[in-house]
Amino acid sequence: MTHQIEVIVKCPNCGKSLMNPSVQVDNLPSIELEAVIENKKGRIYLSQIYGSYNKVFEGVDDIPDAVVQCACPFCHDLLPIVKTCTCKAPVASVNLALGGSVNFCTRNGCKGHSLEFENSDDAFKLFLDRDESRYL
Ligand SMILES: [Zn+2]
Ligand SMILES: [Zn+2]
Description:
11% of the residues lie in helices and 39% in strands. The protein is mainly beta. It has one domain (9-134). Strands 1, 7, 8, 9 and 10 form a five-stranded antiparallel β-sheet that branches. Strands 2, 3, 4, 5 and 6 form a five-stranded antiparallel β-sheet that branches. The longest helix has 15 residues, at 120-134. The radius of gyration is 15 Å and the shape is globular. The model has no long low-confidence stretch (mean pLDDT 90). The site of one zinc ion has 8 residues, from loops.
């Protein structure tokens, strides 16, 4: 049995929520980002389910292994790059609404990603929230 973790995220630069309820991925509000892929500019909508790689491309092509330049749809600042993935692409970071961050590889199709919490209580809260809503 696996626990489904849903990540609610906001822009690390302007603090606005990146959740978009009008575009659903995995039947949940998506995470909206401005994206540049091989000189085309559009949007990508990521699944909020941690570990799901379903996404929607709008105005950009779904090019396998292309590195996606991600920015906030509100302040248009590029997402901070926190490290380099094992595939050599930059790893971008967005903030979790409840503290901590989600890091993900910007290479289309790469599964390199991680959750980082400012303190372990936040991680505990996330799992606890899930358990409670599961049994309501
Ligand atoms: Zn922003
Ligand atoms: Zn990668």
